[in-house]
């Protein structure tokens, strides 16, 4: 046993006399409730877990920075983007979506790409994925969608019938399903994938002029994917493969980096663009809106403590800084509520005071108290507003830009329903080998679906994207094409 001059203590700081033998009545016991060190030790252990994230539970994180390489301050007044060479510290978390905290890294799933910029105007979180689109485009469908990705309530098994039933009845998913079933569905490592903000956001400049913006983070390591057989083997033999790869690369000084680009759309184009720019199941053509370089993200420091930093990190699509605002995207709008609500439940009301989430900017507000208040809680300073004691006041220049709204308030469907062009374009971009692997993966994934009508319905969607796509999946499943296509 090693010797040290440090005493083991209880959590209240008192030295512990014996950490190997509980206190008993006589040498055989029973154990005495008087052994408060034992009670504390067992009780704290019972409380070591916080609820895992309801989605994206398995993840890996790292610290780094963002550096501006191209000044786009004509489009945004966000101060961390003002001027070439400006550096902002960051924390980043990558994740799978559907699996639990201990699940395998090398499964077919989108990967979360959650970025926290600790800017001088507060934290800016960009909570995206490694895909530019998503399966659905209205937040009201998210809980149902995720139910199909998670386990069956009775069997506690994954349920391919539910997955394909939902997708076949939600054809807006076709684009993302095609990406997921393609080679990109299983990245080789977390370093070898792109990242996207996915939604459209609004940038506002110092003069109050706005544009729509989309973010792309291109991996400088190159895109690499895992062959399915190797991925399955790793999922069994080395379930933390991606987590370990990221940690080791950074530990060895091989710092992964991404170049950040944006697409910028003038506000008025949103009225006439051939796809709804606020539909997160669609991309903007780079021919119409070319990529413009913005900066570079480098990850160069591992967390010191997984629980304190990665598990307790809270990213929210609603954490904006002046110059960056929401768009009317109906998924994004739902997310503006969902994340902060999840954080209050999962980590606690005061989650933003934890070191990993604490802004590097000065924080001044009138919130007080709540579970686990661990900072000065405002001390003796004034605790309400308005007040006559010189407390912090609002900054009118930080108000979001005003924008016009019109129309009837009602639950209304999107008026764009072309879910086939972009999915088909993607299929046509693939090489013959890539198409063959895509079809094989789709066929393998759909084979266990229990109802033939679900398979036929989904084949119809593939067919409408590209007749060859539909025909090949139908042939692989031994089914005929649906009638009336
Ligand atoms: C995590 C909800 C759509 C990316 C989460 C969490 C919730 C959630 C509740 C767990 C948060 C936590 O406990 O810290 C939703 C809802 C959505 C939605 C309601 C749709 C309305 C999306 C989309 C993307 C995305 C479209 C990407 C483009 C992520 C990522 C995480 C996450 C990356 C993990 C964040 C982290 O690393 O802590 N989501 N989500 N989600 N979501 Fe979503």
TrEMBL record:
Catalyses which reaction(s):
2 H2O2 = O2 + 2 H2O
Ranges for domain Catalase core come to 9-393
**Compositionally biased tracts (Polar residues):** 1-25
| Pfam family, any one | Catalase-rel
Q: What is its EC number?
A: 1.11.1.6
Q: Which PROSITE patterns match?
A: CATALASE_1, CATALASE_2, CATALASE_3
Q: Per the record, which residues fall in region Disordered?
A: 1-29
Membrane-spanning parts: none
Highest taxon of the source?
Answer: Bacteria
UniProt keyword annotations, A-Z: Heme, Hydrogen peroxide, Iron, Metal-binding, Oxidoreductase, Peroxidase
The record's listing under PANTHER family reads: CATALASE (PTHR11465:SF9)
Query: So what family is this one in?
Result: Belongs to the catalase family.
Official protein name in the record:
Catalase
Organism in which the protein naturally occurs: Paenibacillus agricola
